[in-house]
Structure formats: C-alpha cells, structure tokens
C-alpha cells in the first residue's frame, strides 16, 4: 500500500481572548510610557534650558545702572503674578536694557496721571530710568516683555511683533 505523504505541521498562533488582552495591555503600556516620557522631557530639560542658556543680564550693564537693573527685574517678576505665569510659564528673566532717562510720553503713560512726570523725575533713586525685561518660558522661548519706568511697569505680551517697513523704504519699493 502506498504511503500517503504527511503534511508539514504548521504552527498557527491562536487569537483567543488571552492573546488579544495581552496585546491591548502592551499597547496601553506603550502609550503610558510615551505620555510620561514627553512630560519628563518638557518639565526637566525644558525647564532647565533657560537657566543654562540665559543669564539675568545685570552683569553686562554698566556699574551705575546695575542697581536699577536689579530693581527692574524684581518689578517685572512682580508683574508676572498669575499662578500659571509665576509657577509654570516664566522660567527665567533677563534685563535687556536700561536707559538713563525715560522719554516724557512713556513716563506719563506708565504712571497713569499728568503730574507723574515731575514726580518720577524728582525721585532721587529713580532719576527717570527705564528698563526692558524679557521673560523666557520652557526651552528658552521668549514669552513677553516688561517695560519699566522707576518702580512701575507694563507687560507687553507681543514679543514677536511684526515690524513695519519705514515709509521711505515702502516708497522706494513702489513702482512709479
């Protein structure tokens, strides 16, 4: 009697409820790992980078203006007083510039009343000085700026302003 050829045994994977449950469990572990991983990167590296890369800028100021630079930094930090800004967004600040005398309209606008200009100019510690302080958020991304005059300041949240071309340059570009 002729022998019948034997079939090769094939190993098939069973797709029962136990293996489907394992696959789902593995998928949830991967998703949880990704979720925790990106938060660790943002909250550790992202929060540390501004402190590593950005100094407070006071050492670069001339010696007579360093005291006002420190005062402007404290004024700016007091203006970013919301809980999200104070504990989350503002990671580092830098004094960008300090000028010796504030222009008249800026001093009046920041102080809020018409007689403020004379009061600002006569304060012995102030001398009409103004400063620009910039805040940086995670990964050293600029957040906003504070412009101070004496002990008052205004927060400007539009750091990435679009610069308008000067009227002379616009006229030179126009045909005709």
Describe the structure.
The chain is rod-shaped. The chain has a four-stranded antiparallel beta sheet with strand order 1-2-3-4. It has a domain at 54-156. The chain has helices spanning 17-53, 63-79, 83-89, 104-111, 116-122, 167-173; strands at 92-99, 130-137, 141-149, 152-156. The chain is built from six helices and four strands. With 176 residues, it is of the alpha+beta class. Strand 2 (130-137) and strand 3 form a beta hairpin. The chain starts with 16 loop residues before the first helix and ends with a helix.
Write out key terms for the chains shown:
alpha+beta, 176 residues, 6 helices, four-stranded antiparallel beta sheet, 4 strands, 47% helix
Give start-end ranges of low-pLDDT stretches: 102-123, 166-176
* Mean of residue pLDDT values: 74
Shape: rod-shaped
β-strand amount: 15-25%
Radius of gyration: 31 Å
- Major sheet: 4 strands, antiparallel
Q: Helical stretch count?
A: 6
> How many angstroms separate the termini?
105 Å
* Order of strands across the main sheet: 1-2-3-4
Task: Give the proportion of residues in helices.
Answer: 40-55%
Short description:
By secondary structure, the chain is of the alpha+beta class. It has helices at residues 17-53, 63-79, 83-89, 104-111, 116-122, 167-173; strands at 92-99, 130-137, 141-149, 152-156. The chain has 6 helices and 4 strands.
How would the blueprint of this fold be written?
Elements: H1 17-53, H2 63-79, H3 83-89, E1 92-99, H4 104-111, H5 116-122, E2 130-137, E3 141-149, E4 152-156, H6 167-173
Antiparallel strand pairs: 1-2, 2-3, 3-4
């Amino acid at each position: 009697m002729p022998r019948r050829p034997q079939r090769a045994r094939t190993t098939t994977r069973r797709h029962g409820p136990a293996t489907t449950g394992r696959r789902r469990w593995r998928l949830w572990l991967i998703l949880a790992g990704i979720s925790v991983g990106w938060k660790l990167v943002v909250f550790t590296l992202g929060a540390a980078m501004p402190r590593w890369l950005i100094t407070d800028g006071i050492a670069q100021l001339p010696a007579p203006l360093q005291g006002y630079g420190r005062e402007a930094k404290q004024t700016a930090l007091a203006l970013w007083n919301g809980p999200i800004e104070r504990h989350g967004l503002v990671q580092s600040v830098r004094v960008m510039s300090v000028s010796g005398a504030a222009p008249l309209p800026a001093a009046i606008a920041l102080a809020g009343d018409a007689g403020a200009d004379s009061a600002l100019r006569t304060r012995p510690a102030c001398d009409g000085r103004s400063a620009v302080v910039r805040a940086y958020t995670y990964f050293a991304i600029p957040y906003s700026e504070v412009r101070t005059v004496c002990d008052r300041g205004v927060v400007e949240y539009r750091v990435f302003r679009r610069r308008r071309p000067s009227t002379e340059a616009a006229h030179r570009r126009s045909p005709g």
